[in-house]
């Protein structure tokens, strides 16, 4: 798994194998987990992802600057939708990527969530 924080756009780019994305999806659904990622100190890489179940409302995706990790927290309903999106990307067979961006009235993201780009294990652009 690799997490790169883009300071210019404020988004985080996530690349992972199908197995890693499936594991992350399961942790998001359960509301608990900690995953390490490829990390280069001094760069824009993040050291991992922590998942926490909270009462919400919605899911908050934010960066813990002190620990250099991405934190995903939120209520079970919002986490279930995010988990399904992650599973869909893990099983997509044609490549592509998923943008997870907050906007007012978003179905499951809480205000203040960082934009997240999840890349398919088969590459960032569809092959079909």
Walk me through what this model shows.
The protein is α+β, with helices and mostly antiparallel strands and 128 residues long. Helix content is 23%, strand content 34%. It contains 2 helices and 9 strands; from the N terminus they run ββαβββββαββ. The strands form 2 sheets. The chain has a 5-stranded mixed sheet, covered by helices on one side. Helix 1 (18-30) packs antiparallel against helix 2 (76-91). The longest helix is centred in the middle third of the chain and has 16 residues, at 76-91. The model has no long low-confidence stretch (mean pLDDT 91).
Short synopsis of the structure:
With 128 residues, the protein is of the alpha+beta class. It has helices at residues 18-30, 76-91; strands spanning 2-6, 11-15, 32-36, 45-46, 48-53, 59-64, 69-74, 97-100, 116-119. It has two helices and nine strands; from the N terminus they run ββαβββββαββ.
Distance between the termini: 25 Å
State the share of residues found in helices, binned by percent.
Answer: 10-25%
Poorly predicted sequence stretches spanning 5 or more consecutive residues: none
Overall pLDDT score: 91
Q: Please describe the biggest sheet, giving its number of strands, its sense, and whether it closes into a barrel.
A: 5 strands, mixed
The spatial strand order of the largest sheet comes to 4-1-2-9-8
Taken as a percent bin, the fraction of beta residues is 25-35%
The structural class is alpha+beta
Assembly status = single chain
> What is the number of helical segments per DSSP (H or I, 4+ residues)?
2
């Amino acid at each position: 798994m690799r997490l790169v924080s883009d300071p210019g756009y404020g988004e985080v780019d996530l690349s992972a194998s199908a197995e890693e994305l499936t594991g992350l999806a399961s942790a998001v659904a359960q509301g608990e987990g900690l995953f390490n990622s490829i990390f280069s100190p001094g760069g824009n890489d993040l050291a991992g992802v922590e998942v926490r179940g909270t009462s919400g409302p919605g899911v908050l995706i934010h960066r813990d600057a002190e620990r250099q990790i991405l934190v995903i927290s939120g209520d079970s309903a919002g986490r279930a939708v995010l988990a399904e999106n992650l599973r869909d990307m893990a099983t997509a067979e044609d490549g592509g990527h998923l943008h997870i961006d907050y906007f007012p009235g978003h179905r499951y993201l809480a205000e203040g969530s960082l934009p997240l780009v999840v890349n398919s294990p088969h590459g960032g652009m569809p092959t079909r």
